[in-house]
């Protein structure tokens, strides 16, 4: 044979597989260090609960390949996140989650209780005035490309402690919004004690990771007013087990009363993501299973223009009459509903 360069020995599949496992293990190690946060004790973008904001929850032990960056874009700082395999779409007319078109589960569905959507809750003029008044006060940089304004007590959720210092109530422009909420079935008696405004912008790569809101201080209903642009709320559950599916109903739930719908398919719960369409100027209410069992998120690809979301939270039973901290709850409500607040 000629005197050409000696070819390198081809790597075996075992060697290649071993390198992939080693590389993936290194990635998970980086993720776990990031979750713990810097040694200085400051919260990283992936961890730490702060009053009025939500935690990022990352589960590297269930991750599969799919590069997603913590601040948008690509390159360094990317990590592996769980990719949901099966997409379902929430249908407000039936209250069911229906398999997406051209998917493996098109035509199949399961009940998805705890979501209430009220479209055109405010007018265009009211929307413009609310955002104008919000923009008069400073916005603070938050996690994952968001900005925020908090109107509520300062809370340490880990230690379950709160301070009322500096809290002067919800903003004056929310008085009419809160009054109007109480006119709708399902929102009777809703008295918010906290308002958190979040400002999303595609140029900042704004998003919010899957999370469950705190249940020690915040009560049964989470109420969000979506302004300036529509979005999609993506909901998932990180629990074992399967969801039983039926043929997608064409009628509203009351029309199905008394009928028997036999499940005939199932899908792993961890592989499902339910998309809830949130129109501009709509009010979204999460309660029950949608509040306590299904994590909610907003993905970057669903922020197409500036979006401002005002989320209102009520008190949990512990802070209501008869609860262990009812006196503190009474004080918080008195402050909140004075509507004299500025961002804290």
Automatic annotation (TrEMBL):
Cofactors (names): Fe(2+)
Any GO MF annotation of the entry: demethylase activity
First and last residue of the signal peptide: none
Keywords, comma-separated and alphabetical: Dioxygenase, Oxidoreductase
GO terms classed as biological process: actomyosin structure organization; demethylation
Keyword check for Oxidoreductase: yes
Name of the molecule in the record: Alpha-ketoglutarate-dependent dioxygenase alkB homolog 4
Annotated segments matching region Disordered: 1-67
UniProt biased composition (Basic and acidic residues): 1-12, 51-60
Entry-linked InterPro entries: AlkB-like_sf, ALKBH4
Domain of life from the UniProt record: Eukaryota
Lineage, uppermost ranks: Eukaryota, Metazoa, Chordata, Craniata, Vertebrata
């Amino acid at each position: 044979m000629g005197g050409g360069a000696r070819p390198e020995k081809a790597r075996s599949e075992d060697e290649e597989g071993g390198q992939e496992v080693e590389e993936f293990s290194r990635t998970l190690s980086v993720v776990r260090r990031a979750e713990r946060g810097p040694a200085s004790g400051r919260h990283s973008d992936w961890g730490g609960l702060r009053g009025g904001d939500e935690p990022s929850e990352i589960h590297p032990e269930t991750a599969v390949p799919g590069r997603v960056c913590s601040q948008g874009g690509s390159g360094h700082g990317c990590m592996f996140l769980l990719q949901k395999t099966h997409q379902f779409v929430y249908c407000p007319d039936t209250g069911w989650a229906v398999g997406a078109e051209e998917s493996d589960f098109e035509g199949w569905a399961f009940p998805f209780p705890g979501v209430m959507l009220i479209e055109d809750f405010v007018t265009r003029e009211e929307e413009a005035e609310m955002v104008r008044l919000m923009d008069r006060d400073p916005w603070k940089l938050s996690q994952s490309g968001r900005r925020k304004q908090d109107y509520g007590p300062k809370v340490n959720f880990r230690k379950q402690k709160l301070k009322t210092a500096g809290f002067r109530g919800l903003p004056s422009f929310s008085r009419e919004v809160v009054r109007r909420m109480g006119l709708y079935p399902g929102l009777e008696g809703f008295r918010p004690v906290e308002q958190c405004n979040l400002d999303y912008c595609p140029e900042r790569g704004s998003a919010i990771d899957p999370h469950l809101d705190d249940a020690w201080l915040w009560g049964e209903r989470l109420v969000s007013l979506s302004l300036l642009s529509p979005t999609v709320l993506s909901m998932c559950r990180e629990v074992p087990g399967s969801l039983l599916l039926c043929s997608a109903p064409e009628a509203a739930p009351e029309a199905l009363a008394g009928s028997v719908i036999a499940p005939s398919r199932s899908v792993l719960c961890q592989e499902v993501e339910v998309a809830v369409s949130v129109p501009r100027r709509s009010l979204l209410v999460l309660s029950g299973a949608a509040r306590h069992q299904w994590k909610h998120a907003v993905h970057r690809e669903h922020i197409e223009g500036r979006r401002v979301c005002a989320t209102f939270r009520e008190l949990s039973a512990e802070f209501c009459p008869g609860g262990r901290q009812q006196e503190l709850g009474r004080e918080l409500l008195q402050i909140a509903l004075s509507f004299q607040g500025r961002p804290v």
